[in-house]
Amino acid sequence: MKKLINDPQDVVAESVEGFGLAHADLVAVHADPLFVARAGGAVSGKVGLVSGGGSGHEPLHAGFVGVGMLDAAVPGAMFTSPVPDAITPAIQAADSGAGVLAIVKNYTGDVLNFETAAELADAEGVTVRTVVVNDDVAVEDSTWTAGRRGVAGTVMVEKIAGAAAERGDDLDAVAAVAEKVVANVRSMGVALTACTVPHAGRPSFDLPDDEMEIGIGIHGEPGRHRVPLQPADAVTEALLTPVVEDLGLSGGEQVLLFVNGMGGTPASELYIVYRKARALLEARGVSVARSLVGSYVTSLEMQGASVTVLRLDEETTALWDAPVHTAALRW
Amino acid sequence: MKKLINDPQDVVAESVEGFGLAHADLVAVHADPLFVARAGGAVSGKVGLVSGGGSGHEPLHAGFVGVGMLDAAVPGAMFTSPVPDAITPAIQAADSGAGVLAIVKNYTGDVLNFETAAELADAEGVTVRTVVVNDDVAVEDSTWTAGRRGVAGTVMVEKIAGAAAERGDDLDAVAAVAEKVVANVRSMGVALTACTVPHAGRPSFDLPDDEMEIGIGIHGEPGRHRVPLQPADAVTEALLTPVVEDLGLSGGEQVLLFVNGMGGTPASELYIVYRKARALLEARGVSVARSLVGSYVTSLEMQGASVTVLRLDEETTALWDAPVHTAALRW
Question: Residue A143: what pLDDT?
């Protein structure tokens, strides 16, 4: 195992500590239990946004804490759901009295632990609503999921709901816009290589040198099928087509196109995928009105990429464009 | 070779095309000869900034074209210097009459080709000054370099000189601030794995599973020595110590600390390196006043990182803080 780490048990704590030191203008790290909150605490009168999940997908979620996006993020152990004892204080830290929206990727452990945490916070007087992100069209039910998995579309939910909270929407309205994004965002990914979880010390699955896995999950969960190595244009079509069909996109619609790197993929390859995905959308008469290209929802050092499409309307476009100031997204 | 590419000969052209489509608000791509210019063309009265070099180090340099940084970038073939026939029109595109500063990483081919291009541009009436970046303290003279190599510190030169040009400094003044950054920035890197140049089809060097190379170059040029795998804290000390000593840093000084990923390194590992590098600087009484953590000067999918330290003064701090709007850096 080749990694720039110290004791494998300390990876999450040390990396979040470093993150907090590098971005002290944006975030405050609470060490025990571990969560990352917006610097300066909850914003008076604003709905709080909290997300979290297993570590290893950085910059998700802590990289999205800041103005216009999340108020707190809860990193679990590597590829392991955070525990309610960490989620509950994060929810409390994010609450200014206007309530909290929890944004949860659809994995059984995450959903259960956020549910328990929401009940505990509710008992302390915090109103919590939850939205579950399930954008991965690759498979129904997976290793750690009932229903579709939540993957890169989570970035769109956090950004757009975050902008709604920032402009002063109340909890019901922020939850409604988050649900609108969930209903209109779909993703699918491909892996060229597996990744190695530090405390496991070996790759999480085997993928032969001459194969790739179409429909991979962000923890290496099985996808739709393994195929011999293919050119990027063919892979891109294999990812985009199910996404477009599941969304039921028609000519004349406007979308946000997001090409996400899994962690070990050069930027040049992501732009090659973006180029083809955009051409395929345009050939269907779909207009790419907004774009995001980069490694935002990763699987440690996995090589691969995912394609996410969000159907836009006037409201979600304006909320996407609204200012954001976090470690990983800023405009 | 596992890559999300089509024909290996088309990687640079297709990826720059995708980059241009994704960032059409910021850049315009000129296809033949290939260069990337600021959208809207040269800014009247402003000194133009041009950089370039072999591809494979993205987001360097095209990712830094935009307001407050570069006016044009020239991507060569993979790990291959761009030719004068591409550099000269990029220099001309960047010139509004106030002259052009060329920022060149110290590799023999880059220096020669930029020199030839500057002479050709001069013959067309463009005044060109050149600054050569040579921040890598690992070795004197290397596979493609006489003297020290230019690596991640190039980002600091481009940002700070870009801000000086944006505020209206003349060519001599922009060149002087760029030279000040060059004189005060040092870097050193480590590789855990090699990378594969697409048209070569195999790793550019062999690195055994139980070794890392301290002092690696961004094209895989040999470093100082190979060592058995070590904890991140020990590796960080091995990188930071020569950087600090070469800079002659003293207690009470202020620096910018930049931990750069080589392309295949998870963000979590970069923050572990940052945490230790910061602690080591603080133990010497050096204050980390500004920080940058991310994969900005990469070597395709290489796993590894580099540590860059820039000695700051009031002027360079203010220019670092000045607004920037590019694909890869924005504030």
Answer: 84
φ/ψ of residue B175, rounded to 5:
-65, -40
Q: Report the first-to-last Cα separation within chain A, whole angstroms.
A: 37
How far apart CA B70 and CA B121 sit, in angstroms, is 18
Residue environment code for A273-291, b if the CB has 16+ CB neighbours within 10 A, otherwise e: bbbbbbbbbeeeebebebb
User: Which helix H or strand E contains B190, and what residues bound it?
Assistant: strand B185-191
Token pair for A86: 């960490």
Nearest-5° Cα angle at B310, B306 to B316: 140
H-helix or E-strand spanning residue A238? helix A232-247
What's the whole-number mean pLDDT along residues B72-90?
Answer: 98
The pLDDT of residue B146 is above 90: no
* Residues in B 132-171 with any Cβ partner in A closer than 8 A: none
Quick one: closest CA in A to B290, which residue? A22
How would residue B144 be classed by pLDDT, with cut points 50, 70 and 90? confident
Q: Which domains does chain B have, with CATH numbers?
A: 8-183 (3.40.50.10440), 185-321 (3.30.1180.20)
Q: Show Cβ contacts of residue B176 under 8 Å, excluding neighbours closer than 6 positions.
A: none
The shortest CB-CB distance from A274 to any of B22, B59, B267 is to B22
- A 10 A CB-CB count for A124 gives 11
